[in-house]
Each structure stands twice: as C-alpha cells, then as structure tokens.
Amino acid sequence: MALFLEQVLNGLQLGVTLFLLAAGLTLVFGIMGIINLAHGSLYMTGAFAAAWVAAETGSALLALPAGLAAAGLAGMAMEALVLRRLYGRDHLDQVLATFGLILFFNQGMVLLFGRQPLLVEIPPALRGTVELLPGLPYPVYRLAIILVGLAVALGLYVLIRHTRTGMLVRAGATHREMVRALGVDVRLLYTLVFGLGALLAGLAGLMAGPLFSVQIGMGEQILILTFVVTVIGGVGSVRGALAGALLVGLADTLARAYLPALLRGWMQGPDADALAAGLAAMSVYALMAVILLWRPRGLFPAHA
Amino acid sequence: MRERLVALAALLAALALPWIAEAAGSPASIGLATRMAIYALAAASLNLALGFGGMVSFGHAAFYGIGGYAVGILYAHWSWQEPLLGLIPGSVSLAATLLAAMAAGGVAAAAIGALSLRTGGVSFIMITLAFAQMVFFLFVSLKAYGGDDGLSIRRRGELPGLDLRDPAQLYWLCLGLLLAWLLLLRRVTRARFGQVLSAARQNERRVVALGISPYPYRLVAFILSGMGTALAGALMANATRFVSTDMLHWTKSGELMVMVILGGAGTLMGPVLGAVALVGLEYGLAGLTEHWQFILGPLLVLVVIFARGGLMAALRRLRLA
After folding, report:
1. What is the pTM of this model?
2. Which residues 95-124 of B have a C-beta within 8 angstroms of A?
C-alpha cells in the first residue's frame, strides 16, 4: 500500500511537470493558433540556465530567477522574431519553422555548454525525506514540485476565471476574430500569453533539473508527452491540460511500476522486463488513441 | 517546352551520375545520391497524404521503419534458418523482401489510417504521432530483433542480373524505383481518384454534398502513401545493411515532413527537390562545421518566412521573373 501511494505521488509529480508545459502549449495553440514544436526548447533553456547559475554561484536562490528569465527572454525573442510572422499561416509552415528552431536551440546549447549532461544538486533546504504517513517517507524535493505545480494550477485558474486578462484569454480561445473586432490589443495579449507559457516551461525545466540530467534533447523527450497531454485534455483548455497531465503522469508511472511484475508471471525475467518497458512506454499513446477515438476533440474541448 | 527540357536534362544527369562521380574522383557521392533518391521516394509518398490529401501525418516514420524492419527480420530468419512465426520462411530475395516491406507498410497504414481518419486537424497530427510512437516502443522492446541496438543485415537483397554490392547498381535501382513511383503518383493524382482527394482537402463539404464520401479515398491514399514510405525504408535497409529504431524515431517523421514542405507540398516534384536539398544541405554543412544544425535551423525558418510554397514556388517565381 505504501509502495502504491509512493507511485501515485511520483505520477502526480510527473503530471504537474507535464501540466506546466502543457498549460503554455495549449494556450498558445488555443489563442494564437500556433503549433510550437520548440516549446520543449524553452524547457531546456530554463533547465540549462538554472543549472549553469547554480554551478557557478552555488546558490539555488539565484538559479531560480536565472532559469525563469532565460526561458522568458528566449520565448519573447522567439515570438517577436519568428512566430509573429506565422500567425494565420498554415500549420505545416509552423511545423517546419519551429522544427528549425529546435535544431537551432539544441545546437546553440551544445555550443554554449558542450555535449556533457550537466548534473544539478537538490538545494540543501529541500533535501531529505519527510514521513507523510507512518511508513511512507517521501523526498521533500519531489513533494515541493507537486506543491509548486498545484499552486501554479490554482494561480492560473484564478487568473483565467477571475481577472480581466483571463477573460480576454478565454474569449481569445473561443472567439478569436470577435476579440480582435472589439478593439482588444491582440498583439499585446499574444505576447503576454506566449511569455507566460515560456515562463512556465522554464519553471518546469529548472525544477526537473535535479531529477533528470540536464542535456541536449531533453526538451523533445518531454515535448511529445506534452503534446499527448494537450490533445487528451482538448487543445486550448487549461482545465483539460491539468486533467490530461495528471492522467498521463499516473498512467506512465503506474505502468512502469507494475507491468514488469505482472508480465513476469508468465515470461522469463529479462524478456518480461524489456517487453514491460516497451508496453509501459506505449501505454500513454494507447490511452491517447482510445480517448481520441472516443472523443475526437479531447476531454474538455475549448471550442465547443 | 523549356520545362520539359530542364526535366529531361535533370533526368539524364541523374542517370549518368555514377559515371560522373567516378570521373570526378569522388565515388562516395554515389552513396549520397542513393540516400537522396531513397528520401525522395519517402517524401513523395508522404506528400500524397500530406500535400494532395491534406492529411498531416506526423507518423510516417512508422511506415519507413516497418519497411526497413521487414527486410531486417526476413534476413534474420533466413540466417537463423527458422521461419517467422513458424510459417513465413526468411528470405534475402530482393523482390520478395521489397514486396513484403510494401505489404507490411500497407497493412500498418490501413490500420493506423482507418482509426486516425476518424479525427481531423490537430488531432490527426497527434494521433498519427501516437501510433508511430507505439510502433517505435514496440520495436525497442523486441529483444529478438535487436531492440535498441538494431539489426545488422549481412547480405543485400539478391536479384538475378543485379549486384547490389556495386554502389552504382544500388543507386540505379533506387533511382528506377523512385521514377516508377513518381509516374504512378502522377497517374493517381490526375485520375478521378486524385481529383476527389484534392477536392476533399479544399472543400470537404462540397464533396460530401456531391454525394461522395471522402473517407475511403483518404484511406486508400494513406495506404498508398504508407506503402511507398515502407519501400523507401526497405531500400535504406539495403543501402546501410542495418536497421534500428532510429528509423522509427519521431524526428524521422519530422525530417520527412520538412522535405515535403521545403520542396513544396502538393506538387509532384517538390518533395524530390526538398529531399535532395535537405540531404545535400546536411552533407554540405556537416563538411563545413560540426555544428551544422546551428545554420540549418535558421535557414529553415527563413525559407518558411520568405519562400512561401517551398522551393517549387521559388523556382516558378524565378521563371516568371
């Protein structure tokens, strides 16, 4: 039981990381109509900047704003120089241009930091474990990620449901043309939304640093899962992104934890492990395929 | 008239390339040209779905890899002397393995297409990606066929009268199959079938109002597209004598898409141009610097922003100017 709860918490932790990325991606798509393959590059940028500052200064307090600033600035530059010219263009053009951006960012990081993965230590204040229930110790750092993620989700909910900006964001997601026709400064709104998405991606990246190694290509690995989340939740819906992220995080983690034992019941050890790893990796995509066939527009379609 | 002359000259140059390469003292460029021809075949196939049919598939690496693995798996069973699933004997016959690859690609495309075509738009992009990822992880976990490490093929396909160990003959085989496939695509897209396919892309409602259901047309186009891509994968397996899950990786789908868009989606020769340009650029830039992607990336962005419609459109504009 303790093991199961621990796996559920691990699933939640992956889920909120995915949510931070998916929230930005889904807003950018829902409001600006842009498919941004380079969203993962912002995640990578945040992770690298934070890891570098932490290694140079030894201070996690400085690494946090550094990671956020790097991702935010990279995102704003990306929007102003490239994506702004692609609004209203065919999705194919956006895919090609942002694929080019991925190559640029990955190779740029190689030029700046080399090919060696950077190792990041957990800040001293967040080391160790905490006993959540009797017999259930859990790493403080992972718990902190879950809490930060949930806090961001709550903050986004308040921002989108209860502020004027949020009202425009919602209106932009469902009736883009009408918002423009009513005289709203759409360009400013777009830049704000994109900057917010970039900040959240950077936050996800810098928090993931101590758990996974910070390396070239880390953005694409998680980007694909983020797309799965976005599509499952319904493109353009932040609520859907949260639901999808938690679903994907839990499915992936639980499948990885329990499939090997299940398969070992009727197969040889190493073969079972290899097949279970494959099936576990496939489980998320199978989940997405089933949900899309059942509800082609995702769980919470924004353009209802 | 001028267009035909240019096409004829390009064709002759392509046919004579092995001799030119020998004479110029760079036999290695035959291998490069072979890669270009193979990628052109894959990109032209993807274009049937993406450009003509408007089905933006982000999962064509699945068919490409399945084609490659068909050759690899048949070779493996041939060398182990044990039939696949106890039924299908292994083989190194070129005709048999290429046909098997196309059949496997077609079956996979039928299954994936039948399900994916129930959605549309962004969902279609993502669901094809999801299926391709499933195929990718399936082959990663199949330890019998090498898993992560891939599968070496110690013998190229055998066909009486053809020696594929000679790079020039392998090149001519790939070029010939590319030309045959392009001719087929030309016929298909100009026939009633292709007209309906294009019409459904441009205005689905009207097609439906005319009493035609787009679904079967799209599905058949998707299957054809998968078969051509699998053929390209099978040829690549013969050229490199190695298959691995790299062929199934999602970046391969992205690369094929880039070729189509770079050359010009929805044109017959666009994807061929795109494949030649991308493979050539990669090769040329990689010769200049290790960090060639740092240059290629912004170049792609510039092409999108300033050369709408890809290289084909740029060529047309040049001719008008």
Report:
1. 0.85
2. 115, 118-120, 122-123
